[in-house]
Design a protein that fits this description.
Immunoglobulin-like
Length: about 220
């Protein structure tokens, strides 16, 4: 069983909006039990070990398969800001139980914030990737445009990277290590600024970091 929020690019601990969509991919070799005969619901989600939701109405079997299917459950109650967990519980037709748990961090839809802004590897020799999580300002899946500017320590701009229309909360942007003139950077330490804006221009956020080139 695999659990996601909003898209299958979700990773455990990622940031989500107050009203995300829970996605659970389920496999049961003997077939999935969707009845309510057992104590509690055979297919259910429990948030923060408290509130349980019957997921059976939100389950769809894969075409021509009784073993595989997907739950798509839109969370309609506003989750409180902060860290949460959800456990999905499924039974097969012989009532064998399978569970999976993920954690997630709810942030406001009314602001755009960035967290875990890194480049990896760092130091690097030929290429690196910038990664970060962003909140769901404007609602889950709101597209953002990303600009990454790289400077020398003296403040001279040497590289600008653009990526447009990103909808995932976890963002990864690769860089080949070349400056705007197509030259490899010399060994040393550089500064970078990550600038993120929603496509409609309603929200924006920035973050600063350092990277090093060593060959």
């Amino acid at each position: 069983m695999a659990i996601y929020f909003d898209s299958r690019n979700f990773r455990d601990g990622d940031v989500v909006s107050q009203n995300p969509t829970l996605i659970a991919d389920i496999h049961a070799s003997n077939g999935i039990n969707l009845s309510d005969v057992a104590v509690g619901h055979s297919l259910q989600a429990t948030f923060d070990n408290q509130q349980s939701v019957n997921l059976a109405p939100y389950y769809t079997s894969e075409l021509n398969s009784y073993q595989d299917g997907t739950v798509t459950y839109p969370v309609t109650t506003n989750l409180s800001f902060g860290k949460h967990s959800v456990t999905v519980r499924a039974l097969d037709v012989f009532n064998n139980v399978s569970t999976a748990t993920v954690t997630f961090d709810v942030e406001s839809n009314e602001q755009l914030s960035l967290k875990d802004v890194f480049n990896y590897p760092n130091p690097f020799s030929t290429s690196t990737s910038f990664t970060f999580q962003r909140s769901s300002a404007g609602g889950a899946g709101t597209p953002i445009d990303v600009t990454i500017k790289i400077f020398t320590l003296s403040g001279r701009l040497i590289k600008t990277i653009h990526s447009y229309g990103i909808t995932d909360n976890y963002v990864k942007i690769d860089w080949d290590g070349l400056d705007d003139d197509g030259n490899m950077l010399a060994n040393g330490v550089y500064l970078y600024k990550v600038i993120v804006r929603t496509v409609d221009g309603a929200y924006s956020s920035e973050a600063l970091g350092k990277l090093a080139v060593i060959r």
